[in-house]
Amino acid sequence: MFADMYQGLLSILNFPTLGMVTLGLITGSFFGALPGLTTTMAMGLFVPVTFFMKPLLGIPFLIGLYKGGIYGGSIPAILISTPGTGAAAATVIDGYELTKQGKAGKALKMAKYASTIGDTFSDLIVLFILGFLGTLASSIGVVDILGILLFSFTIVAAVSGDSLIKGVISACLGLLFSLVGMDIFTGIPRFAFGSVNLMGGISFIPLLIGLFAMSEVLILIEEQYSIKQKFIVKVKDIKKSFSKVSKKEFLECLPAIFKGSVLGSFIGIVPGIGQPIAAFLSYGIAKNTSKHPEKFGKGSLEGVAAAESGNNAVNGATFVPLLTLGIPGDVVTAIMLGAFIAQGLRPGPALMQNYGVEMYGILIAMVLANLLLVGVATLLIPLYQRLVLISKSMLIPIILALAVVGTFAVNNSSFDLLVMFVFGLVGYTMKKYNFPLAPMVILFLLGKRTERALGQTLIKGRGSLMILFKEPVAAFFVVLTIIILLFTIIKSIYDYRKKRTENSNSISS
Amino acid sequence: MRKLLSVSLLALILIMSTGFSFAADDLNFPTRPIELVIPFGPGGSHDMHARAITSVASSYFSKPIIPVLKPGASAAVGSMYVKNANPDGHTLLFGHNGVNIIAPHVRDVAYSIEDFKPVAQINYGTVIFFARADSGITSIEQLVSELKEDPGSLTFASSGIWGALHIPWKLFVEDAGIEMSHLPTAGGGPAMQAVLSGDAEIGAGFPPQSLPHIESGKIIPLAVTSETRIDELPDTPTFMELGYDFSWQMWRGVLAPKDTPDEIVAYLSDRFEELVKDPSFVSMLGRMGERVNFLDHEEFAEQIEKEKAMYRRLLGQYYKD
To answer: What is the CB neighbour count within 10 angstroms for residue B235?
Structure first.
């Protein structure tokens, strides 16, 4: 293994390979940073080009695209409340708040550090214990996936802000939207109202851009006419927007980054869950274990660090089922699978034995890609950061144009534009009445997946859910879910009582 | 972005092609680049097949073939686009039987196979049925007898309702008269995962995904759905050899709008027949683990008729005309 690793290292330490990685990173972060131009699209477009390249040029280029894309999504999420990719949805919550407070620089740099650390952690464990992780991946079944998904529901409480009731309402709406489309078990359309466009369900990116970006455009337009604030940031705070992350702030965020890295790596191994849910989970866990949970949602660097380490740590780990089982966890890895096969590197149990040198070369290139990403990000951040210097009257049309072009680019579908505008209005209304948006996004992501896993678990359990307690991974997450649920209920009763006694005290006195 | 890219590509190719375009025969076809519509997103296996075709097409057609991605609504968007296109042979659909024959019979979509004229089948994929190694099942006979004794005791994982793995499974259980529980998953990968992790004892898949696990000994092949055995598994019988009355393959092929003139369809069919012999096309398909299985426009039409009759029988109450 170590001989192969050494040979692999030598085979990629050359200018063309590292150059291709860098090219991939730059292209990828460009795609990620433009809303609608997703990582999937970048990889899909460029994968045929790699068919005609050598494996150690083509694959590293795609790895660069992948990592750059997932990282790049955080930039517009932080600066203009527009997640460039689905993975950056959780980054918006605190990232955009920080920008409005004049801390865009800190948020962007924290995203850079957290992304790279999370990704490096994930890549390193894949590099050293791929075989073991492969065995773990092949043992994860539908029941375990249901356990993990059920656990993910608990994040709703963490991202609900001040009112749990409003969070739950938002979550229920998200669940409802996720059920639009064809039923997975019978093939019968639901809530499609006879529309061919709705048959395949509501597309995620248009929904996301509508909820976050379009709604923000409406709010900015409204503010433009009420308060005379020329920039998103108060004028006196603009200079502050370019400041760095201090050592103290970084150390404070380190536990969140570490937890996000471990969690993201685990989620990456489980097929079919993906970056967006990992980011929200990491965010929820960081909030529940933070010393300053009250800051989350109001501009917390820890929130950005948790979301970004969580989603980027998925990247490396998704290669585990891909390489050892030939099973892609999502569309991006499915494209990657195609690229490996086209190079004659057929993923499966025998891959590492048959192509040890090439594969270790690729895995080491993944680790090095993270270091290069720091460089690329350091060059890109100052460019994008200038967005805060653009006055609102210019910024509003820019975001609007990006939102429309980006939405259309996803599927070349004008129906998606309608979806985006409708969710723009939904998002605007929700923001106006202080309903949190994140629970809706989370449940939209979890809804169909959970329905499928539930149906599958019931088929496996012959109609009984007790099977959830018989599988160790599933049982662990279900018990954890129940504990958190009980804790949340007890805490809200306690808070309610406290509030009531305070109120009655103030009335009586 | 994609549109911009294809438009600029088109412009580039147009300029290039003026240099060496030569007069075709009396047909006067093609007069401009041919669009090959892929009803899926970029990077999937279907897209990779289509791009393998378009990348070698310039040697066989006097005008280039341009891949046009029209994903959405489970391939309905792309199919509708070709259905409504000008039937002059310049707009073609790269379809497969999943979306173009099965889907219209089980879902409400505004197109059917009758809206298209078959041009050429490019290749097909055989489905391998397999059992998890520690399930104790080693043959179809044994599987059937166990299920006859204890109906519903074994589970089959598919890639989803009416998908490429569900259809041949359905043909098998109906023919064998057995009861088996069905676990639909989100695709071929998750279906394989379900078998490996023990959620299901029986699974199925195409050779590129299944063979590595067969070689590693995790799964045991039981039967293949093609009419003849496949080279990689010479000892695995076909369902027909085992006495079942069905064969099934997932084909990928080129379809034209139904009013396309027959001469143009025949011309296209001849050109594709030459194209599929192109060495670099064959090697590209080979690396994907696929093989060319060409049928010209007449054979392809017969194949489609045969399939339609089969689905009418299989789908029964679900069948929509």
So the answer is: 6
